[in-house]
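Side project, low priority. Logging it here so it doesn't get lost.
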Amino acid sequence: MKELILKNHKKLITSGLFLLFLIAGLYYMQDGYFDTISAKTNAFYFCCAVAAVPGVYLLFTYIHENGLRGFLRFPKAAYIVSLFALSYLLSSLGDAHALDGSVGWNVGAYSYLLGLMLFFIFLIGDTDEKVLIVMLAAATIPFYLVAALQGAGWDVFNLHKELVSDERYDYISTAGNITVYSGVASLFIPVICAALDHSEDFRWQKPVKLLFMADIVLGGTSICLVGSDSAYIGIFGALAVLYIVECKKKTPLWKLARIAALLSFSFCIAEILQAFNPKTAFPVRKYFSYYVFKFHLAFILFPVLLTFTLVLYKWAKKSAFPWIPISLMIVAAVTLTEILSPKGRHFGSGRGEIWPFAVRTFRNAGTRQKLQGVGADCFGYLTGAYINDLPSTDKWFKIANGAFDGVKMQKNILTVGGREVVNCHNEFLQHLLCGGIITAGFWSLSVISVIFSGLRRKHISPFLFGSIGWLIQSMLNNPHNLLLSFAFIFAALTVKDQ
């Protein structure tokens, strides 16, 4: 037993750290929903502090085994990810708010440096991919279950009890803000879907298969009941790539049909629960879930996905890459989104106001500001919420100078729905304004290099599809320490040799 532990101690280290981040990140709360950002940040910092000690050990072990030349054998993505994190540090020096992210959601330069540490821990450490995936599925089932029950009208832990009615449905499960929940679902559900296709490779095949299926059903039911639009987009976007990859590999059709059937079944459960308890269930906002329930789309989802799979199968035999069905899928998705989305500047919970504001702000910035930004997670400087906290007298602009006509400002502060805006609700725009062109460029190169590196591998890791889901939803959401930690970990697991 001792010899076995010594032999696999590196895998035990990475598995233990992965489980720690799962449990602490997903479930730690301090005062219900009133300080979830602070709670998740504290959990993130605590887990990183714990990870630092074994991280140093893994680093010295790696140098001992591979020498300094071992660093030259890292995948190219590792260097680009490093440049992204370091560029944020350089753009944030001299501003305490930018270093700790206290102007926004506490995702400052320190968070990106800690994320980089996690990336290298899981890159150089031995990992057992199958063990990590089983941990992921087991840890998220209660997380999805609480969300599904809340969405169906049963607030099992009375987490919504103290919230005002306007905010009651913006917080879900133990994640806090619904956008964070969307990010978690977009990260995790595609991984389990990809793993289910190859569940025969796992030990204890039947229990593992049942675990994966339960996780997918609960996750699908929860996103439908809570009306999480960015989760729809992130999950189904990642699954589209998964279907393409599996069709190219000639994966049996029934395996892909199984995923479609499980998701369809989960939407059916959601519709039944919504109808069963309509008085206390989450009100269905007029977005995707609204149309799922109104037109009973759950019952036609399976044949639609099956048809899409058959088309991919046909094209996979004829071409190196099925561009035509992918293009048609993109056109259909854009068209559907345009039809279903509310018109005007208020679409996407205010994103129709925030994004044009962000673009105009960047356009009106000086050369230096365009290059280096205002510091990590400091978008609140630009919206006026924290304009007086800018460390430099050389401000980007004066909010009252009329440069932003058409944007609703209250007392020179950008507000949406009566709330002060401190995030861009789009990670690329957030990085562009906070880190400048250099940081946004490295971020873009990082995600592209990670995804393409993962696709080129002989063994395509299921974590790749979690990275894709995270990337898609990030175009609609904000950086968050819970999401950041797993984005870096998944990136490392995607590009490393297993």
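Brief comment: The radius of gyration is 22 Å.
Revisit when time allows.
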